[in-house]
Amino acid sequence: MSPPPQHPWPIGFGIACLRAGLYILLIAGLAQLAYFEAHYLHQGRFTEYGIVELAQSATLATSAGLLLYVRQVQRALPMVTLLMFAFVVSSLIREQDYWLDTNVARHTWKVLVALVALPSVALVVRWRHQFAEEFRHYANTFSFGLFASGVLVTYVFSRLFGRQSLWQAIMQESYLRSFKNAAEEMVELLGYALILIAIVELAILARRWRAAQR
């Protein structure tokens, strides 16, 4: 497949505002889930049994499905989307670690992640020149900036922000682990939401690229 054009059709201000409004509603809806969990889920709040944890998995599963759509239906950036898909699915598996360790066997999630990640990385390395060419186009898009932001929020900031020592220092004798868990899980959910929005933008962009090629 030939590389996509570097300058697809411009996006109108009205459409940009509409998409921004929808993304605001998505973020607000996820925040309301946390509010609902805090108020009405009296046991297991912000744990593996909570609504926020379920929302994280649903967000990742939706992202994985959209990536399959971009790769298999729109046939855009096959190597880039393969690596993104492996990353998102690995994250989804990681979110199920408690259930897998409890109901299957300890460290099951690590085996499943390896089965997803290693073949994908091997294929990307095998077709590294194609990947580099695709990435050159993707790196200059709004989608890539959002995706990178989501990864940084989820895998860097949330881990540092959720440190027990930090919240013990902030709350001192009033420290509650549930408060620390809530903060960490909500930041993580925000990161996953940014990744989802990035992939929605990629799906829209892929459609525009395909239309431009026609």
From TrEMBL:
The chain crosses the membrane at residues 12-36, 76-93, 108-125, 137-157, 189-206. Keywords: Membrane, Transmembrane, Transmembrane helix. This is Uncharacterized protein. It comes from Billgrantia tianxiuensis.
